[in-house]
Here is the input.
Amino acid sequence: MHLVLSGATGYLGKHLLARSLRDGHMVTALVRGGGCERVLAALAPFALPARLTAAPRLRVIAADLARPVLACAAAVGECGRPDAFIHAAGLTRFDRALADELATHNLCGTQHAWGLARALAIPLFQHVGTAYVAGDAQCLFDASTLDVGQHFRNPYEATKFAAERWLHTVAPGSGTALVVQRPSVIVGGCPIGATHAVGTLYTFMQAVHFLRECCRRDTRARLGARRDGEVFHLPVRVAADACATVNLVAVDDVVDAVAETACVAPTTDTVTTRALTGHDYPIAAVADAITATLRVSGVRLVPATAFDAIPRTALEAHFHRLTQVYAPYLFGSPRFAPRPAARRVDVVQLTEDFRAAAARGRMRRTRGLGTLALDTLGIREPRDYFSALCDGAVGRDFLARHDYVDATVGFRLHGAYTCDVTLRVAGGRAAELTTGAAHTDCRYELDATLFMRIVQGAADLRASFLAGRVRITGNTELALKFGALLGLYYGRLDDHLLTELSA
Here is the structure.
């Protein structure tokens, strides 16, 4: 078969791509940026034979579904009409500040993918949604349920609901069969990508792992942790309902369901919804399995009222900051209809696999606290970093130490993650200004990948300028001085992060 796949470099997408290639299908992958190299990097953990990842078995076409993509229809159809379109692309972020971006990717992206499928007369369109379109629904939520007047805990749920509801309005009579797949929290397989970005359950694993690494390197015991052999006692309370449950589904279950659907001859104009939920697991048992496997003790689940009644310690505040977008899920899931055939998942094994992947990452490259901090905060690209800097999630120590700085500094970044940002740095804080609306004292122009290496402490801004890899416009003297300050901060990033965590 010839399959079109969007989201091929994402967590689920790369598993779908590997399975499709192993099953002998030809796949056209629609990729937003990075091209074939990015797709091959996503496939690397699956160790596929080279013949499966070479043309014509795998074709990669640049297509940003956040914008209309009909212009690439001819390229997609070069090998004949595809048999099915698997739409697995989307933005899996829960931050309320990203509501507009989530709508662009999850709703508009679905509309553009559907438009492309219709333009090519593809007979089957599979949309990977989420079981959490249930929102806060109190009823038993199954495949036949959608709009029951529920509210949503974050814009991710809301935009996935809007996309599914839109598909239900346009699919009947279109000539294309629609299948909506609704997985719950997906776990297992290869959750860690090239950027070490993770989500949902793995965010908590990464947060615990990060705090343990901080305490391991805290030779002056500033964080108040206690070590007993390989176990670190971290006095951290977490606001949660210890009696609540979370629904986890194995990634192999989801991949099997999508693969099976793709191989069944579609019936024109049908609309089918499949609930790909797993089993419910007590949050307290999940927390115990994660902390014990990562060799951490002292993490306690407490009711929200008890958590708010006592001031947070530095570790508690940071753990909450790292995981707060997922906090609503610590107080219960919707009531999903049981799916007895679902595989059971082993949280201990999931955590062991995560720890092994994190260890491999440290061996492949320098994994200082700076890189771990960015990974744990979900900072995948420069835009994420600038938002975190302005929110105070990163760089507080740098800004506080240099509260005398008063400058407007621009960053024009190119490459895989193009962005143009202007910051006002003054009084120990950073604020983003509307680009072009304010005078800029100086501006740096550089590759986005180099910028991320700089903020991780793996490269130096001033040295990169002298090597010709950074272009400066405006006040060059100011830019070099500011770059030197950044170099001093990022060059000793581990120590500065420990200071920020203990403040």
Notes: The mean pLDDT is 89. The radius of gyration is 24 Å. Residues 99-119 form the longest helix (21 residues).
